[in-house]
Amino acid sequence: MTAPVAIRRLNAADPDFAAHLDHLLAWESVSDDGVNQRVLEIIKAVRERGDAALVEYTQRFDALEVASMADLILPRARLEQALERITAEQRAALEVASERVRSYHEKQKQDSWRYSEADGTVLGQKVTPLDRAGLYVPGGKASYPSSVLMNAIPAKVAGVPEVVMVVPTPRGEINELVLAAAALAGVDRVFTVGGAQAVAALAYGTESVPPVDKIVGPGNIYVATAKRHVFGKVGIDMIAGPSEILVVCDGATDPDWIAMDLFSQAEHDEDAQSILVSPDAAFLDRVAESIARLLPTMERAEIIRTSLEGRGALVRVVDMAEAIEVANRIAPEHLELSVADPEAWLPQIRHAGAIFMGRYTAEALGDYVAGPNHVLPTSGTARFSSPLGVYDFQKRSSIIFCSPDGASELGKSASVLARGESLTAHARSAEYRIKP
What we know:
Elements: E1 8-11, H1 17-25, H2 33-49, H3 51-61, E2 73-74, H4 76-85, H5 88-106, E3 113-116, E4 122-129, E5 132-136, H6 145-158, E6 162-166, H7 176-185, E7 189-191, H8 195-204, E8 214-216, H9 221-230, E9 235-236, E10 244-249, H10 255-266, E11 273-278, H11 281-294, H12 301-311, E12 313-316, H13 320-330, E13 334-338, H14 342-345, E14 354-357, H15 363-368, E15 394-401, H16 404-420, H17 424-431
Parallel strand pairs: 1-12, 5-6, 5-8, 6-7, 8-9, 10-11, 10-13, 11-12, 13-14
Antiparallel strand pairs: 2-7, 3-4, 4-15
Helix pairs in contact: 2-3, 2-8, 2-9, 4-7, 5-6, 5-7, 6-7, 8-9, 10-11, 10-12, 16-17
């Protein structure tokens, strides 16, 4: 007899539903004092001792015998070699993914623009790529070549001249797929360092690692904490929480499909969150049965069970309209609209990192090959954040060119406003240009 999974059931009609949902969604990503202090010490050491600190920490944390920084640099030829070492099937899959990701992100690219007013004044915006971007990639067994594509390709499409990748190789473990993905994505330089020390190196630079303008890519609590501390010196993509999926289903999708969609996020780690919302109580029961039956077939069954029992839920709502209300309240990283007519409900979705439309669009497709970026806002931040994209690697500068007539007319209004703020130099600067 298959043991049932103790996944919580919630009913939107329950007067305490809002409190129960808030408790379920609560996630605190702030590091504890011990982690925070350790990260600050590492950052300080890297700033003061550069390459020597990187070598020392790599020896200590990654159990590697390295003599100097030269041992932690991978030449471009090594990336090309990885492309030859992986199987033909793996290379073909990587190429499909990289082509689709590049094609999608090409459409995001913004161009400079300007317009002229009647008096000859010209206003506009100059769009410029960052000079250098840093990409953090988890190493060892937790290696994600898909993350390399999703982070590096938008930077290259944006026109970033140099993308620098850091990836730890604990105990010498090198993932050939990660290096092959770096080759296809156009990564320029690779350093086999990780942890807070890699983030510090990218932010401040060392004798070997060049300082970057922005750091992107996922990592553990030490990496996330380091990104918090270097923000301001450099830009960062986000401080990501655990993976999330919210499935809204009308009850007509195969329950096995839905169960596996929930598993697809739960298998990431014990803190991942998988939630199903449906107005069909009998369907929720069928999905619960599918979860119990399919779980023993999963390689990461215990991680999935812990995730579902700790942070998962099956939520009963009155109707689809209420299901959409719940979805907007959750503001999920991934939202599956597993319904007959997803287009009908799309206009009502206000908050979601990525929206997967219809019964056949599994979230897993978005993780790898659909094309849109899989770096998405988590923990409700989809209320105000967007997926990683080309725009994250471009800066915008305002352009203002005043003709003599334009400067004279604008100066009159600027003078009044400046004197209203008691900023006399501002006012007189504008007034000098007013025609008599």
